[in-house]
Amino acid sequence: MRPSSERIDEQSVGHGFIQPSRIGAPGCGMATVTACADTTGMLDLVLPLECGGCGLPSTRWCEQCAAALTVRADQPHLASPRLDPGVPVFSLGRYAGPRRRAILGLKERGRTDLIAPLARALGEGIAHLETWGILDRSVTLVPAPTRRIAARRRGGDPVTGMARAAWPDVVQALRSRAFARDSVGLSVPDRQRNVANRVRLVRPVYGPVVLFDDIITTGATATESVRVLQTAGAAVLAVLTLANA
Hints:
Rossmann fold, 8 helices, disordered N terminus
C-alpha cells in the first residue's frame, strides 16, 4: 500500500509546528494545508509573500519549484556519505536550488508553510521505496536527533514536523545530548567526534525502522543514530533524506 498524499493523520499543533492536514490540492503554495491557514496568516504579517524555493513574489510556492521537488520514478537515489552507517542511504535529490532554499527557509526563517511541499516529496519518496519492496506500511519513521537549543531557536523540530506530516507512524526516539555542537562548518573527523556517544535513545521503538533526516552530508549523525537504534534492538532498514550535500 502506498501512503496517501491526500491524508495527514496529525492535524494539531505539535513540536512547535502546525501539521498539514491535506497535501496535494491547490492552495497554501502547492498544497492545501487546512491546519496551516493560521500560520500562513501570521507569516503574511511579518514576511513578504514570496516563493520559498526561488523568491518569486506573490506566491508561497510556485509551479516551477513544485516541479523541481517532484519525485521522479527513479528517486530516491542511493547516496554515498563519507561515513557509512551500514544501511542503505536514500536521498530525494541534491542539496541545491529550490530544495536547498526550501529547507533553509523552514529551518532558519520560520517558513512553516514549507512543511507541506517538503512533506509531500517525502511521502512520495517513501511510496517509491514501498513499490521497490524496500519497506512497507509497518515501518516506523524515526526523525534524526535535533539539539534542544536548535529546536527552541527554530520554534520546534522541523525534521519531526515533516515526518509527522508525511507518515502515520513516527516515533521521536532520539535526542542529541547536551554539548553537541552545530555541525555546520566542521570537518568529517570533527563531525564524527561531535556526535560520538551524544545521540541517546529517549523512547523505545520496535519493528522495522527508517531513519529520516533533512540533509545528509558526512553521514556522522546518521551513523551514530543507526548505531544507537540497532543497539536498542531496532531493525534499521535504511536512512532517508530530503537532500544530500
